[in-house]
Amino acid sequence: MTGLLLRLAVIGIAALGLAACMDETEREAGPGRIVRVETVTASDLGDVATITGDIQAEQEVARAFRIAGRLTDRPVNVGDAVEAGDLIARLDPQQEEAGLSAAIAAVVAAQGEVATAQNVYDRHAELLRRGFTTRARYDETLKVLRLAEAGLRDAEAQREVAEDRLAFTEIVADTDGVVTARGAEPGEVVAAGQMVVRIARDDGRDAVFDVPARLVHALAQADTLNVRLADDRNVTATGRVRVIAPEADPTTGTFEVRVGLDHPPASMLLGGSVVGEIELQSAVVVSIPASALTRGHGLPAVWTVEPETSTAALRPIEILSFAPSSVIVASGLNPSDVIVTAGTQALHPGQRLVPLPPNTN
């Protein structure tokens, strides 16, 4: 009897233990652990590089005299606005005026010689018709007439040259613009072709930058570039890369890049300092909240929610960089993955999860 009671007691204890295990299993398979989740989305990891430069004219014209001479007048200075037709500089015209007077006198003399030769020829032509002169005499008068006519043409050509030289003693603006440099002062003797005034044309503005080699490719790929005044960042303009120097500057190792500005504001004056902003793009990455980060087997990891079973799974990840409240993940996660961002304590693989609604605090 005593042995029977002992066996019943053992069976009862085993039954109680089995019941406890069943209760624990039921709790694990019940509603699950409440967690906060977030769906992973892809993004481009962008950065902005800044470069400095200045405003220059899209085109500059160097004006010079075609002849040498003494500069007597230069009514414009650096910074002056000029319009097409305005006088820019003048040489002493005395020598060219004398040359033109001599050329005109030569034309008048040649015209007289032609008139005389024409009269002689006409008279001998009539005499030849009547038989009162010889063919040889007639041919001689014709030759004299042709030589006189050639002399007149030469004299007229010399007069045109003299007129041009007199016109070359003045330089006028051929376009509206602003004077950016001067190369000679009144009283100096200037050579033909020597720059006297440089004019920045009003038909375009460039932002010119000296760009490091590592940014040249990004600039070449950029559709547009944001340009701001260095002393007033609220003054902005957009532009497109117009010219990239084919070779680097041997001293600085940088490449000159000219960006044509679209309708720049009036306050972006020539010579003003500007800052350009280049958007740099990297490979597609994902950013997750820092609270989602945990460790698995000594490596960075996150808990994900298996979509078919709503259970937890530990996923190793590779971290690209850290931010104050987020982590940039280089690999290990895909867009549309669901990760646990709160409630990660004491999770284990296969555990049933109950995500909180998005608006639940």
Automatic annotation (TrEMBL):
Coiled coil: 145-172
Keyword list, A-Z: Coiled coil, Signal
CusB-like beta-barrel domain span: 209-266
InterPro entries: Beta-barrel_RND_2 (IPR058792), MdtA-like_BSH (IPR058625), RND_pump_MFP (IPR006143)
Pfam families named in the record: Beta-barrel_RND_2 (PF25954), BSH_RND (PF25917)
Family of the protein in this entry: Belongs to the membrane fusion protein (MFP) (TC 8.A.1) family.
Protein name: Efflux transporter periplasmic adaptor subunit
Organism encoding this protein: Acuticoccus sediminis
Lineage, top ranks: Bacteria, Pseudomonadati, Pseudomonadota, Alphaproteobacteria, Hyphomicrobiales
